[in-house]
Amino acid sequence: MISKKDIRRHLRIVVFIIAAISCFATTSCTIERSNNWRLDGYWHLGMIDTLQTGGVLDLSQKRLFWAFQVRLLQVVDRDGVLDSYLFYFDYTKKGKTLQVHHPRVNDKVAGDPVVEDQSVYKEYGINALSEPFEIKELTSSSLVLESDKLRLRFKRF
Fold this sequence. Notes:
Layout: H1 4-27, E1 41-50, E2 56-58, E3 64-69, E4 72-77, E5 85-92, E6 97-105, E7 131-138, E8 142-146, E9 150-156
Antiparallel strand pairs: 1-2, 1-3, 1-9, 3-4, 4-5, 5-6, 6-7, 7-8, 8-9
């Protein structure tokens, strides 16, 4: 037969274990959540319009993509012609703005080196080391961004 003293001791151990697990659960890694609404995802760059001249560049047959996740943007050419780059971005739903900045070459082996020449990724429609875009359209299937020089048209992939 188990004595009351043994029951109390076991009960204290159980309470201690539950408290320890609760403590570790609340202080362990936190999951970063995205507030990017419809922006997060994989977007195919289909068209670039030049605002000053009215020129249109049809990229629908090329596989150029922008991939948004939390605060990181990856631009990638799935045809393998262009290098891939990483950017940080700031997005505001209310102001309908997107700012891409701090570009890096997407090369884990080399430590994702910082890009200092913005001309290397101009084929993706980005023309500066830090560039603001106005979000003209953002639906579940299409995205239109506009900088001071270009309008970029995307379809969700």
